C-alpha cells in the first residue's frame, strides 16, 4: 500500500472538508479536493522536470503548506522525498534534485529547482504514474536532528510508515485518536511532524500548522475549535506563556501530546493548569517510534518517567558487555520492535554505536520498572562532568523550571577560564529575572556542585526541527553570554 493512498481516498469522500490550515500563510486553509489538485499539479511538474519513481528529492521550503504539497506530489509519482531545514543533506541520501525557496545551492544535490508558484499551476488532473511500489520500497527519508553530531539519514518504507501511524491509535490512549483537528507544532522535516501529517490526512482530519505569528495561530485554535496539540516541550512552553499572559484566549484543547524531548513535571503541571488537563508524554526516536507513552498524571510520581512501553516494542537497560539488567536497574537504554529500522542509510561511520545485534541504542541512560514504565535519567552524550560528578542537564533544568516566571530552561557544560567544566544554564521567561535569585533557588534544590555557575536569560532557546534543545548551538550561544 502506498502511504499517500489513504489521503487520496479521503479526498474522494470529503473534497470540501478542510485538510490543512496555516493561519495567515499564502495558502491559508485548503480543502481535501484542492490539496489533491495542487499535489497533482506538483506531481506533473516534477515529471516534466525529469523526476521519476525512485528518485530522491530534497525539499527545503519555508512555507509549510507548499512544503506539504510538494511532498504529496512527489509521493504521487513514487519519488522519495527528504525534507531539510538547511541547504544541505547527507551524501548518503543520493539526492538527484533539490526543490527550495532559499537562495544559493544545496550541498550534495546534483540539481536545484526553485520552489515557486509554477509547482501549483495546472488543471489539477492526476499524473500518469507507474504501477504501485512494493510495500517494502522506501517512501520517505528522515534526517536525524544531529544535536550531538552529524545528521544521519533514516529510510522509511511504506510498510514502516503505516505501522508507525497505526501504532498511534494504541500508544496515546483513547482521547487523542478521536481528535479530528490537530495542531502539529513539529516541522515536516522531523519524523514526528511527517508522521502526524500523514496520520491526520489518512483519517480525514485537519492538520493545523503554525501561522505567520502567534496571535493568528491562537485565534485559529479557538475559531476552528482545534482539539489536540502535538508539540515539543519547547513549543508547549511558548504557547503556555501566551495563555498565561492572555486570559482572554481560552484554550480549546482536549488533549496535548508532548514529543521530541523529555517533559519536566513543572512544565507538565503548568500546561495541565492553563492549557489542557489531559497531557500525554510520548517517547520515541526517528529510528523507532512510538516507544513509550502515558498520561503525565499517571506517571507523575516517578521522576524521569516518560511512559509505559508500547505494544510491539521491547525496551531494556543494558550494562557491561551489552547484558540486559534486571528491572529497575539503571543502564544504557536500548529497544527493538515492529516500527524500528535496521540501520542508517548508507551505513555511515559510527553507525555501529547505535545499531548493535538487532537493538537500537538512542544514547539515553535509564531503567525499565517491573510494571513496564520507561524512566530516563539523562543522555550519555549530554552528561555534564563536574569534576567527576556526572549529572544530567535534566536535573538542573527541572530545578530552574520550578522558579516563578521561567518558561523554559536548558543546562549544559561549559569550561571556565581554567578549562574546568562548569554547569551553565539559559532560561526564557515572561518577565525580567534575577540570576542571583535563581541560583539561590537552585541551591535549595540541588547539591552545591550542580548549581549553575552562570544563568542567563535569553529571548529564545535554540531548538532542532524535532523540537529538542539544540545543544550544539547552546555552546555557540555561550560565547556571547
Question: How would you describe this structure to a colleague?
Answer:
The chain has helices at 5-13, 32-48, 64-76, 158-171, 191-203, 214-223, 233-245, 265-274, 393-401, 435-445, 471-478, and strands at 18-21, 29-31, 56-60, 80-83, 97-100, 112-114, 138-143, 153-157, 181-184, 206-208, 228-231, 255-258, 279-285, 288-295, 305-309, 313-318, 331-337, 355-356, 359-360, 364-368, 373-379, 384-386, 389-391, 406-415, 421-429, 454-457. The protein has 481 residues and is of the alpha/beta class. The chain has two domains: 1-381, Rossmann fold (3-Layer(aba) Sandwich), CATH 3.40.50; 384-478, ANL, C-terminal domain (GMP Synthetase, Chain A, domain 3, 2-Layer Sandwich). A 13-stranded mixed beta sheet has the order 2-1-10-9-11-12-13-14-15-21-20-17-16, sandwiched between helices. Helix 5 (191-203) links the parallel strand 9 (181-184) and strand 10. The model has no long low-confidence stretch (mean pLDDT 91).
Task: Briefly say what this structure is.
26% of the residues lie in helices and 26% in strands. It has two domains: 381 residues, ANL, N-terminal domain (Rossmann fold), CATH 3.40.50; 95 residues, ANL, C-terminal domain (GMP Synthetase, Chain A, domain 3, 2-Layer Sandwich), CATH 3.30.300.30.
What is the secondary structure topology, with strand pairs?
Elements: H1 5-13, E1 18-21, E2 29-31, H2 32-48, E3 56-60, H3 64-76, E4 80-83, E5 97-100, E6 112-114, E7 138-143, E8 153-157, H4 158-171, E9 181-184, H5 191-203, E10 206-208, H6 214-223, E11 228-231, H7 233-245, E12 255-258, H8 265-274, E13 279-285, E14 288-295, E15 305-309, E16 313-318, E17 331-337, E18 355-356, E19 359-360, E20 364-368, E21 373-379, E22 384-386, E23 389-391, H9 393-401, E24 406-415, E25 421-429, H10 435-445, E26 454-457, H11 471-478
Parallel strand pairs: 1-10, 3-4, 3-5, 4-7, 5-6, 9-10, 9-11, 11-12, 12-13, 25-26
Antiparallel strand pairs: 1-2, 7-8, 13-14, 14-15, 15-21, 16-17, 17-20, 18-19, 20-21, 22-23, 24-25
Amino acid at each position: 500500500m502506498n502511504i499517500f493512498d489513504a489521503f487520496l481516498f479521503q479526498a474522494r469522500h470529503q473534497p470540501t472538508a478542510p485538510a490543512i490550515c496555516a493561519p495567515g500563510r499564502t495558502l491559508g486553509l485548503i480543502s481535501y479536493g484542492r490539496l489533491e489538485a495542487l499535489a497533482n499539479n506538483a506531481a506533473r511538474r516534477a515529471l516534466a522536470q525529469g523526476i521519476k519513481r525512485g528518485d530522491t528529492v530534497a525539499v527545503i521550503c519555508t512555507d509549510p503548506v507548499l512544503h506539504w504539497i510538494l511532498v504529496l506530489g512527489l509521493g504521487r509519482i513514487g519519488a522519495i522525498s527528504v525534507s531539510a531545514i538547511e541547504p544541505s543533506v547527507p551524501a548518503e541520501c543520493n539526492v538527484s534534485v533539490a526543490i527550495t525557496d532559499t537562495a544559493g545551492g544545496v550541498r550534495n544535490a546534483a540539481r536545484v529547482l526553485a520552489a515557486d508558484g509554477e509547482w501549483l499551476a495546472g488543471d489539477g488532473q492526476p499524473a500518469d504514474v507507474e504501477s504501485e511500489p512494493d510495500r517494502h520500497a522506501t517512501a520517505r527519508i528522515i534526517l536525524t536532528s544531529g544535536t550531538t553530531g552529524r545528521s544521519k539519514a533514516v529510510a522509511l518504507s511504506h510498510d514502516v510508515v503505516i505501522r508507525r501511524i497505526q501504532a498511534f491509535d494504541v500508544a496515546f490512549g483513547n482521547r487523542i485518536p478521536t481528535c479530528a483537528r490537530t495542531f502539529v507544532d513539529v516541522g515536516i522535516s522531523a519524523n514526528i511532524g511527517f508522521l502526524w501529517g500523514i496520520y491526520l490526512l489518512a483519517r480525514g482530519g485537519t492538520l493545523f500548522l503554525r501561522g505567520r505569528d502567534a496571535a493568528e495561530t491562537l485565534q485559529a485554535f479557538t475559531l476552528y475549535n482545534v482539539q489536540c496539540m502535538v508539540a515539543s516541550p519547547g513549543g508547549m512552553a511558548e504557547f503556555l506563556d501566551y495563555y498565561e499572559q492572555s486570559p482572554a484566549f481560552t484554550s480549546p484543547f482536549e488533549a496535548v501530546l508532548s514529543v521530541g524531548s523529555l517533559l519536566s513535571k513543572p512544565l507538565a503541571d503548568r500546561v495541565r493548569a492553563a492549557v489542557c488537563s489531559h497531557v500525554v508524554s510520548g517517547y520515541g526516536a526517528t529510528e523507532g517510534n512510538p516507544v513509550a507513552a502515558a498520561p503525565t498524571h499517571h506517571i507523575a510520581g516517578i521522576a524521569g518517567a516518560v511512559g509505559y512501553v508500547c505494544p510491539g516494542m521491547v525496551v531494556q537497560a543494558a550494562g557491561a558487555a551489552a547484558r540486559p539488567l534486571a528491572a529497575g536497574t539503571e543502564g544504557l537504554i536500548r529497544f527493538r520492535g515492529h516500527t524500528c529500522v535496521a540501520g542508517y542509510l548508507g551505513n555511515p561511520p559510527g553507525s555501529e554505536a547505535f545499531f548493535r545485534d538487532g537493538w537500537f541504542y538512542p544514547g539515553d541512560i535509564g531503567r525499565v520498572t517491573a510494571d513496564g514504565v520507561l524512566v530516563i535519567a539523562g543522555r550519555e552524550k549530554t552528561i555534564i562532568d563536574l569534576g567527576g560528578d556526572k549529572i544530567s542537564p535534566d536535573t538542573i533544568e527541572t530545578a530552574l523550571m520550578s522558579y516563578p516566571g521561567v518558561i523554559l530552561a536548558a543546562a549544559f557544560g561549559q569550561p571556565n577560564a581554567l578549562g574546568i567544566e562548569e554547569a551553565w544554564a539559559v532560561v526564557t521567561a515572561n518577565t525580567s529575572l534575577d540570576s542571583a535569585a535563581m541560583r539561590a533557588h537552585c541551591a535549595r534544590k540541588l547539591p552545591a556542585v550542580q548549581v549553575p555557575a552562570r544563568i542567563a536569560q535569553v529571548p529564545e532557546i535554540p531548538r532542532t526541527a524535532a523540537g529538542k534543545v539544540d545543544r550544539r548551538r547552546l555552546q555557540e550561544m555561550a560565547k556571547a553570554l
